[in-house]
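Blackboard transcription, Thursday session:
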Amino acid sequence: MTLVVRSCGPMVTVQDRGRRGRAHEGIARAGAFDVRAASLANRLVGNDPDAAVLEALLGSYAFEVTHSTAVAITGAILPVRVNGKDASQNHAIELRRGDRLELGSPTDGLRAYLALSGGVDAPLVLGSRSYDSLGRIGPPPLTVGDVVRSGPSAPGEAWFELVPVRPHPAVPTIDVVEGPRYDWLSAQARVELTNGSWVVEPASDRTGVRLRGEALTRATDWAGRELATEAMIPGAIQLPANGQPIILGPDCGTTGGYPVVGVVRERSMSDLAQLRPGQHVRLRLR
Amino acid sequence: MAESTSRDSRSELVWRAYGEHGVLIECRDLAEVHARFRAVRGSALVEECVPGAETLYVRPRNPATSRAELVRLIGSLPAVSETFGDPERPLHVVDVVYDGVDLGDVAALTRMSIEEVVRRHTAPTYTVAFLGFSRAFPYLVGLDPALVVPRLESPRPSVPAGSIAMGAGFTGIYPASTPGGWRLLGRSSVAFFDESRDPPGLLAPGDHVRFRAVGP
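(Written on the board underneath:)
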């Protein structure tokens, strides 16, 4: 064993690259929401960029070190302390047996990633160590007293020593492309989708980020029609009947019945993962 | 042809862009979706291939593959001969306690007695059209058209696992407790999903299902 959870904030789960290629079996992809932060954390401790990490929502986590190891913490910007002393993010931290590692509340962003030298070990379920919060597949969220073991793979050299911590923009811009049902939007709604300022709803999670703003209306040809059930993918911007868009996250259902009017570009999914409830966000078609 | 669709000149396939790399292929009917799904899913060049009611989503394994190349590949794969609805496929008989919270509303919407709703729901042999949503949710076709009712105006935050439900013209079984907007008719105690099995879903596309009403 390597770390023991001594204090646990709202939710911390194990995540890797997720269950790819199984959507036709009705199995969500899951996996790290902020892939950029997760792979950076892995590279800082010399792991494969897709190795399993801990994804911690908000803050107030404490771990007791039971075997010496190295960790790196990326993603949301938050206070990191070892035995009460400040430590750096985006930098490998050497920990010794008996140390106490604490993550405070983020001042910026929502999800922090903790990579452990050798990767986080957990049983493979359907080819992945990720927890799917919709299907409840994979290792369940950690609670106080749980043990986090490091993986069997021998880590290599760190890819980077230190990467500057960059604040997330106050009003982030998420890049999107037109979705397969973009033509369901009225001319006015097409303008509002990208000109409007959207607010992140508190009822957002790994299955989807709900936005609130000027309701997007449907083109007259599609008013009152129901879409035949079709594939849904992480990043898809669904338009329910109330006109308030939902951007699907990694744990989204693999099929659904709301038209997908846009899809977030893969590089912008990391910015989506860090949006906080109440924060304003803009969408940009490009 | 709608403004956002394209047509491949060789295969005549009509498709839309879906995400940065994927395509959504339009099909005539479920039988074509099923045949194309069976042809495409084994291709090493494809990462995801997800059937829907009238469409097939395909994402290439290599993001550098252009959509035109991907559509040409899909159009060139030989159609699979097995016909959708083949009676030789396995039949699963599922015992159901018809005491769902929406049974009364369904009876009112269809102007039938509850007994008639149950009689019509247990009469057909259904076929698994495709799996989706979460934990291998089976979408079953073959529903009596008189039972087709709109889904709930807003989904329930939690539906009990094993619930037998109707929505979007299908009937289905919630394999786990999840949010859901379909109308609940009853419940079954069969374990439809076991993550230690591979594939984990009990039902496969093309399988047949009959519901049998039993007492609580």
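Lecturer's comment: Chain B touches chain A at residues 2-4, 16-20, 22, 24, 37, 41, 47-55, 57, 59, 130-139, 150-151, 168, 170, 176, 178, 195, 198-201 (CB under 8 Å).
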